[in-house]
Amino acid sequence: MQMERIKASGTEPFDQTYSLGYEVNHKEWSPFERVNRLRKVFLDRPYEIDVERLRLVTESYRKNETLPQKLQCAYAFENVLLHSTLHIYEDDLILGEIAAPAKASPIYPEFSVNWIIDEILNSPFEERAHDQFYIRNDEERKEIVELCKYWQGRTIEDKVNKRLEEEQTKGSQLGKKIFQTNLYHYAGAGHLAIDYAKLMAVGYDGLIDIAAKKYENLDKKDPEYGEKRDFYKAMIIMHEAAKKYIARYGSLAVEMAATESRQKRKEELLQMAENCKAIAGGAPKTFWQALQLFNFATTLIQIESNGHSISYGRMDQWLYPYYESDMENHRISKEFALELIEVQYVKMNNPTKLKDKGTVLVRNGRGFGGESLTIGGVDRSGKDATNDLTMLMLEGSAHTRMMNPWVCVRMHEHTPYELKVKTVECIRAGYGHPKIFNDAPSIKAMMSKGMTLEEARDYAVIGCVELSLPGKEYGWHDAAYVNTPKMMEMVVNGGRCLDCGPHCARWERCGKIGEKLGPDTGSLLTYESFDEVLSSVDHQFDYWCDQMCSSLNIIDYTHRALKPVPYVSAFFEDCLESGKDLTEGGAKYNGIGPQASGMATCADSLSSIKQLVFDEKRFTGEELLNAIKDNWVGHEILYATVNSSKVHHYGNDDDYADDLFKYMFECYCRTIRGRKTPRGGEYSPGVYSVNANVAMGLNTNASLDGRKAFEPISDNMGPVHTDGGSHDINGPTAIVNSLAKVDHSLATNGTLMNLRFPQEAVAGIEGRDTLISFIEEYIAKEAMHVQFNIMSAETMKAAQKNPKDYKDMLVRVAGYSAYFVELGEPLQKDLIQRTELRF
C-alpha cells in the first residue's frame, strides 16, 4: 500500500493547504503565470451570441432539404467545420472552440427558435437581470431573427408540441409544471461520455476505416440497409470534416508563427501545429497531443448538438498511458503536465450556451452545464485506481477554481489516505469542487441496469450526479424533473391543484374551471386512514409518471426523426458495429432518466398529516387543507407547529419521518423503473433537483411541511428548510443516518446531497481530519453522493452587499458550482438558508 501511495503524487505535498473558504483580495492561485492570465482574460471577457453557426447550418439545410435526415445533419456539420472562423488566443496551448469565439454562444435552430425570436424582439438578452448575452450589432440581430424564421415549424419543439395530447401537456411545463421535460424538448440530447480510450487508440482515421469497411459489407437484403447506409455515409462525412477542421487550426498556427517575434511563443505555435498534424487523422503519441485530441473531439460533439453535460469520463485513467510514457521517456515534466491540465481547465469554460429567460430566472448558468470529470475509484478488477493524474487533476482544480470542470472523486473503502486528504483540502478551499461519489452503491446501481461487474466498476459521472458507462450508455440522463410536492397537491385536494379556480392563470391547460387536473384519489376531507393517503400517493405518482414518460417517448422519437447524431455515435462501439445511430438505440445501454424533486417536502408533509390528523388527532384534515389553501394566513399556531420540533421531521435520525422519506423515495423509483424506452432500454429514476427546487417552488402553492407559497421546495436529498426555519436540528451525523435509511442504488440515475459548513467548522488539522472521518462514515453507510459548501451565511451576505469584491467567488449550488454574485436572488436566498452544520 505504501508503494501505491508513493506512485500517486502531484507536484505539491498531498496535505498542501490551499485556503479556508473564499478570501477577498486573494493572490493568484496558480503557480503558472500563463494560467493566471488566461483565467483573468476569461473572467473579463463578455458573453456574446455568435451568428455564424446559425448562418452556416441554415445555408446547408436549405441546400439539402431533399436528402435523408442523417445526411442533412452531416452536411450541415461539415459546412460549419469548413467555413467557421477559427481563433487562436494569446497563451493558448490547446486549440479548438465550438465554432464560435470564446464565451460566445452559437445558435442551434434545429431544436427551438420561437423563444429566440421572441426575446430578441421583446425581452432583449442584454437587458436581463443576470445571465446577459450581447449581440454585436443591429445587423446581426436582424439576421438572427430572419434565419430563425426559416426554422419555424421545422424544429424539435414544433414537432413535439404537435404530437402531445392535452393529458400530457396540462401537467407539463406547458401547463401546471407538475413535471417538466424542458431539456430535450427544446435542446439537444447530451449527458454522455464517449470512449476516449478507443479514440486515442485509433484516431479519426481508425474510426473512418471501420465505418468504410462496414459500409462496403452492407447487405441489401437487410431491411435496415437504407438507414445503416445513411449512418455510415454521414459518419464518414463528419469525421472527414473533423480532420479538415483540425488541419485548418494547424495551418493557422503555422501562419501565426511566421509573424511571431517572440521565440518562445513561436515555438509553442509550431508545436501546436505539429500536434494538429499528428492527430488530424492519427492517434496521439504524447500527453500534449492526447489533450489536444480530447479538446477537439469534445468541442465537436458540442458543435453537432447543443446537449448539456458532454462529460469527460475517467480522465485520470484513459489519459494516464500518455502521461506515463512521456514521463518514462523524459518528454515532459510533472510541472508542465500540470500546466497543460490547468490550461485545459480554463479552456473548458469557453463553450457557452444561450438559454431562455424562463430557464435562467433563478440563474441556470451560461455554460453548457454538467461537464463532469471523474477521477479515483476502483478499476475493472476492483483495485484502487489512484495515480499521479488523480492528484494532478485535483491540484489543477485548486489552482484554477473555475466553474468547469466539475471534478468528481470516486471513493471506496480502500481509497488511499493521501487522496482523501487532497480531496478535503480542495473542499476546504471553499470553491465547491470536488464532489464525492461512493463506489459501492454506484456500482450496485450500474449492475441493476444490466451491466457486468467489470463494466459497472468503470462508471463515470455524467452531468450533476448521473452515473453512466462511457462509450456504451446513452442514458438520456436529466430527461425531466418531477415536482413531487405539486403531485402532493393532487393527493390532498382531490386531484386538483390548490389554486384551481377563477384565479388560476393556466386553467385553459388544466381543463375548465373546477374540473380535476388529475384523477380524484381522495382528499384530506375524505381520508379515513393514513393508509388511504399513501395509496393516493401511489396512484397520483403512477398517473403523472404515465403522462411524463409518454411525453418523453414522443420527444425521443422526434430526436430520432429530426436530429440524429452520427458524429458522436461513432465513439460508441456498438453504434459503429451495428450501423445504428445513438438516437436509434445503437448504444449497448439505452435508458431515459427523469428525476424526482422535493422528496423531503413530501415526507414532512406526510409526517404532519400522519402525526397531527391520524395519530394525535390534534387537527382535522380539513384544518390542514384550509391552512395551505390560505397560505397559512390565519393558521399561525398550526404553521408554528409544523415548523417546530413538535412534529417529526426527516433529517434528524427519526424513524417516524425517515420512514416516510423512504416510502416516497421507493414509491418514485418503483413507479419509474422497468418502463421501456423507444431505444430498447429501460427508464432509470433519479432523486435530485439540482437548483430546480427554487424555480419549482415559485410555481408551487403552500405545503404541509410548513412552506408558504412560492418558497423553494426541499433541495435534492436534503431536509426541509423554510422561512419558518430549518427542519434538521440534530447535526450532520443525524442527517447522514436519515439519508442512509434508503437504498441509494434504487435511484439508478443518481442521488444528490448538499451539506454546508462554515469555514471555522473545518479549520485546522483537527477540522480537516474531522471532515475526512465524516466522509469515511458517509461512504461506509453507502449513501451515493455528497458535496460541500464551505461557506458561512455571513460570507454570502457580504457578497450580496459588495459583489465587486466577490466577483470570482464560487459556491456549490447543487451538482455544479457557480459564481455567487451571478445567481438570481431567490437562489442566493436558498443557499443562505440551507442549514449551517457543525460537528
From TrEMBL:
Domain of life, per lineage: Bacteria
Domain Glycine radical residues, every copy: 719-839
Single GO molecular function: transferase activity
SUPFAM superfamilies: PFL-like glycyl radical enzymes
Keyword check for Cell membrane: no
Keyword Protease among UniProt keywords: no
The protein, known as: Formate C-acetyltransferase
